[in-house]
Amino acid sequence: MTLDHPNFGKLPEDRVIIFDTTLRDGEQSPGFSMNLDEKLRMAEALAELGVDVIEAGFPIASDGDFESVRLIAQRVRGPVIAGLARAARVDILRAAEAVAPAERKRIHTFIGTSPLHMEFQLRMQPDQVLEAIAETVGLARQHTDDVEWSGMDATRSDPDFLCRCVEIAIRAGATTINLPDTVGYAVPADMHRMFSMLRARVPGAERVIFSTHNHNDLGLAVANTLAAVAAGVRQIECTINGIGERAGNASLEEVAMAIHTRHDALACRTGIATQHILKTSRLLTGITGFDVQPNKAIVGRNAFAHESGIHQDGVLKNAATYEIMTPESVGWSRSSLVMGKHSGRAAFRDKLRALGYGEVGDNQLNDAFRRFKDLADRKKVVYDDDILALVDDAVMRDNDRIRFTALDVHAGSRGPARAELELEIDGRAVAATATGDGPVDATFNALRLLFPHEATLRLFSVGAVTEGTDAQARVTVRLEEDGKLVDGQGADTDTIVASARAYVHALNKLLVKRTRSVPQDITTAMSA
Prior knowledge:
17 helices; single chain
């Protein structure tokens, strides 16, 4: 590769840049909002993971987004820090201001290039789109040498027009060209054909890095990503746990481990420290309250589990018979150490490290250890999944305005259920008693008395973390307010307590969501 990139220098032919958009595209998922401290923690974890570029947010979207991008740019060292901007002067300037403190910075600007997007979303003619690309990429280049341009809905764009867009973006100073499958429409053959065509036809293509950004609407995001890499793409845009709009984005852990494991088929490499993958995944699930499904590749709890007798026999004789990578290579531990009520704080801390949590602060450790001891008194055996559930529920809630304190429920077949609930709201202890059609309804009614709100309950789901009648319940609560959806989760051996914790978690996320605003319409922004 003849490219001399402003932030990566002379990139080796086999080096693939990992561009993580968990904090931008991932956070746009319903219920996935993060506060400032949570975004900073995720950004620091992504830097430790070895991500090359962190898309820290969409600075024009809200003051909160701007502040989070700017703080990450100030605090996080190592990765390039990128801010997203539409093809609008006001967006570009806002993004430039947000990423200015970064030691390595990037402005990522985009515009729709498909007939559908140009006609119905942008209400612009093709010539106007070409003019906007030239103007906004040029403006971004005045503020940083590293400018990425994206053609939104590229996979449904006219090939000739797409070539013209890419050529103009390169001429205007773009150093990375990203062609996203915005709606998850493409199949791998489409991706290979599109990138091969552009690299062959567009003048100056050899001077830029081509990038792929794939959504998972048809379950093909990772496959499409790898097809693009096979066609010469050297930047992958992805998210931890595959979170993102609608069905999500290409999963960072799946892409990274596919490249790591199948070097024979994909002769390239990343800078990802794969042993930190599980820890980063766990951090995200703890912050957002969204667990990955048990059979999720790489980070699901069943990813390295074997129940079939034939499989168990093979793995006992040689793990390679049914495991194509080692659990340790992505951060899993082979340890089957059972924790119980006699386990001490040191053993508990070591267990958290083994489960991927790294160093836990003293206050967080004390809270988690207290909950562990309480759980151990109620359960005969505390499994790893039990610990993960209670730590996710207890440790990752540092900035919550509403905190669960205690709950006493009276229920049965002889009358309405009654719940006596105690909370801490903004540091003040409050309590209320309410009745309802069952203990959960009574508990939620008490919550509404203590923290009045107009949110509607859209989902109430209960699942067991482990097996047995003493298993912890994992409850998910989904609330909707003014079109905003948030999901909260809670865990406890008492299902009603878990329900209260989940509802409180959802309310805290709703408070974060209320601070977000919707970006102005692009046609308005472009006239600014």
